[in-house]
Amino acid sequence: MAHHDEIIVPKPVLIATGVLMLTSLIIAGTARSANLEAAAREPLPRPETALLLTFGEQEDGSLTVERSDGMTVTVPEESKGFVGGVLRTFTRVRQRAHEDVNAPLELGLYASGALVLTDPATGERVPLDSFGPTNRRAFAQLLALPGVPTAPDPTARNHETEATR
Hints:
With 165 residues, the protein is α+β, with helices and mostly antiparallel strands. It folds into two domains: 11-40; 49-143, no CATH class. Helices cover 39% and strands 18% of the residues. The chain has helices spanning 11-33, 36-40, 81-96, 133-143, 154-163; strands spanning 49-57, 63-67, 72-75, 105-109, 115-118, 125-127. Strands 3-2-1-4-5-6 form a six-stranded antiparallel β-sheet, with helices on one face.
């Protein structure tokens, strides 16, 4: 004996779903034609402090960061996780835009305390604060300026806790 399950959807639900999908398409099309994306990328004010950073991958897997002030910083392979991920994202965006993948990026600290990595070539910007204090610290250390709030090293905290016991 064959058993057939039949799902019956009320006609008003189907109509409402169709109207919702059509409305979504109209809103998305209108936003695209009005170029609202460009308005969302309105330039930020200039940062209070900024450095251009040029990144280079070394044979041992570490990153060399040449700062526009002449300092060079090395990020060991085991510490480059978040920094490397952000750089790969910028590289993909630059490749799609046919820009030089080795051009410097700008790391800026704003009056609000926001730390933002910006690609002058494409206009892409990444607010590093949105990735949490540990990831923010990975870039704040490249800026290495007094007053740049960074998250404490969790291992250092554990050692202090054990030492005070």
